[in-house]
Amino acid sequence: MARTITVDLGARSYEILVGAGMLDAAGRTVSEFGAARQAVVISAEDVPAEYPLRVLEALKGAGLITEAISFSSRPTSEAVKNLKTVNYLLDSLFDVDPPVDRSCILAAVGGGVVGDVVGFVAAIALRGLRFIQCPTTLLAAVDSSVGGKTGVNHPSGKNLIGAFHQPRAVLIDTDTLKTLPAEELRNGLAECVKHAVIRDEKLLDFIESHARAILSCKADVMTELIARNVAIKAAVVADDERESGVRSHLNFGHTIGHAVEALVGYDKITHGQAVALGMVAANHMAVARGLIDAPAAERVTKLLERLGLSVRMKGLDADGVWRMMQHDKKASAGQIRMVLPTGAGEVDIFADIAIEEVRAAVAAIS
Amino acid sequence: MARTITVDLGARSYEILVGAGMLDAAGRTVSEFGAARQAVVISAEDVPAEYPLRVLEALKGAGLITEAISFSSRPTSEAVKNLKTVNYLLDSLFDVDPPVDRSCILAAVGGGVVGDVVGFVAAIALRGLRFIQCPTTLLAAVDSSVGGKTGVNHPSGKNLIGAFHQPRAVLIDTDTLKTLPAEELRNGLAECVKHAVIRDEKLLDFIESHARAILSCKADVMTELIARNVAIKAAVVADDERESGVRSHLNFGHTIGHAVEALVGYDKITHGQAVALGMVAANHMAVARGLIDAPAAERVTKLLERLGLSVRMKGLDADGVWRMMQHDKKASAGQIRMVLPTGAGEVDIFADIAIEEVRAAVAAIS
Question: Of A170, A168, A130, which is closest to residue A37 (Cα–Cα)?
Fold first, then answer.
């Protein structure tokens, strides 16, 4: 049972298709855009070769001139998420024969890094090409593939270079999740819990009652889980495409999470694990402020543990976390803002964050 | 007498201010945007140092934290319009202390290359910073500074990498034109003639009757000339921001012009000179098709000559021009489109361009 969710952005609206075998729908999907005669499939070397190949075959089957490009993921995917890779992809793209023109469509096949990098290449090649996202990890499926945030890292910080550029469609093939390492699955589950906390208590119930089926990637449950999550992401993005307001609710767990990643090193902790720690810390702050009660916070902590995510990190330096928070690109005019829960499925943005409460929260998770 | 022209783009609308001493208005202008505490002035080493300095002082005077960055223009400004320079500017920008945040405003001070490169940096730094254009050449003033096209060249072609990113204001200081080499002035005049041909026969009258005053950069005449030209550009951009229709009228003279530049080498011919040749060739095609009469074409040729632009180029290879036209990024699905005049101040887009008529037109200018 495939599911379709629409991201409502006026002229830039698009559909997210979720279900088994969805990669093979790429040709049919792209044909509906009109005016396309050429498509270039871009993937990374750490993505199982079968996935970009299936997208390529589907596009060929729809009568498009196709080409495949792949970039190296060594030493790590995150380490190559930079302008050098963008440059390499642009060189490869402009080397395609026949030459790509403005009607060309790019297809990003892979995890979050592939989606972010290819989306950015689509944003800046010929001042904007159409592209589709084909996420093959749970994290990319429920988070980065929807919403049009594209970009790469700079030595000074993550995602400092980028653009808002919406895909024309997102194809989520639940079959691809079966090959996903457990750690990668947990990465995505942290974002699922985040969505539940900020918008949808019933999703929290769903994850709790299907935790075992989710951890074993049962097809129907994964389709339902992903559909519910992208629906939340789609609604938030439709309300605030450029993150001037409610879209920043999606940063729940990410302010301290990003600071932890920057402090301990991006290669030492997964994003999902850092976000899990960030959510537990933010919940602690919310309890201390009297915004939510302790059992509500405890419920989220327990669920994260059950999903295999650590909720403590030994020896975390609170002042270091605070320092890193001040470098976050989302700090505005030097002011730190945090998203804190205010009830079941409800959060708000707080700009009066004091060093003392961050210290106490970090102490609670270390 | 300063003049103000509005570019009407809804939430992205902005004003173009034209007049003597306008660089000193940067502080006042930026203050009106709100929420700015920091501004970074970016210029190139071939721009007279006085200009970025004046903008910097004006911004400082308005209470902003300021920083200046400059990039090398060697060997030529066009040769450094590439991703390497973008990378250098991003490194410099993220090295500014205190660190730039999303409220930071960039100011581009210089010619077309500075505006295109800085506009692109603004488009992709922190997924989009606000910026102002302070063009100091006639070409940048009447053409590239208005409309939000930003970007850089790639070894495969000009402006292949870029984004649409509108400035928040354009400040055109007519005093800066006094230091402009005659060749640079002519570069801009070719675009002025283009605007007259595509939209405004009265502007053609104006340029004809004030040619001498224009060539000697008389202040009042230059303010009037620039105001009339940016008004045309602003109206075209407001009608069609992303160039899906009438904005391509601005390509009059540019299809063959770009092909000539690519064929003879960008360092061998100025952009204005190439556009002048392109306009004469396009007019020749329009006469041959019976779209306009010969005296109308002759009038434009004569005016270009009077402004010091060559209307012939010895030994131009027609088949080479045709080949280059097929590589133009504006070719769609392999089809060459050209803008041809259809009457006084009127043009249309033609997609049925045959090699024979291009050969005849190139023969007429060689």
Answer: A130
Residue among A83, A96, A116, A127 with most chain B CBs within 10 A, to mutate: A127
Q: How do residues B267-295 score in pLDDT, each as one tens digit?
A: 899 999 999 999 999 999 999 999 999 99
- From the list B99, B127, B242, the residue facing A163 with the nearest CB is B127
Structural domains for chain A:
3-180 (3.40.50.1970), 252-365 (1.20.1090.10)
Q: Do A94 and B154 touch (CB under 8 A)?
A: yes
* Residue B332 pLDDT exceeds 90: no
How far apart are alpha carbons A245 and B56 in whole angstroms? 32
What lies within 8 Å, CB to CB, of B36 at 6+ separation is B30, B64, B103, B104, B105, B130
Helix (H) or strand (E) holding B336: none
Quick check: A98 contacting B, CB < 8 Å? Answer: yes
Token digits for B222?
């230059």
Helices (H), chain B: 26-31, 50-61, 83-94, 112-124, 138-139, 182-199, 201-209, 211-215, 219-239, 254-264, 271-288, 294-306, 318-327, 355-365
Mutate to test the interface with A, among B37, B92, B127, B159 (most CBs of A within 10 A): B127
Nearest residue, CB atoms, A331 vs list B101, B163, B333: B101
Q: Is B24 exposed, middle or buried (0-12, 13-18, 19+ CB in 10 A)?
A: middle
Give the closest of A37, A101, A329 to B331, CB-based. A101
Task: Mention every residue, 6+ apart, whose C-beta is less than 8 A from residue A64.
Answer: A27, A30, A36, A37, A38, A39, A105
Give CA–CA dist A37/A59, Å, rounded: 10
Residue whose structure tokens are 């993937």 = A43
How far is B248 from chain A, CA to nearest CA, in Å? Answer: 14
Q: Is A126 on the interface with B (CB under 8 A)?
A: yes
Q: How far apart are the first and last CA of chain B?
A: 43
**What's the pTM?**
0.94
Query: What is the ipTM, given to two decimal places?
Result: 0.93
Over residues B122-148, mean pLDDT: 97
CA dist., res. A4 & res. A17, Å (int) = 5
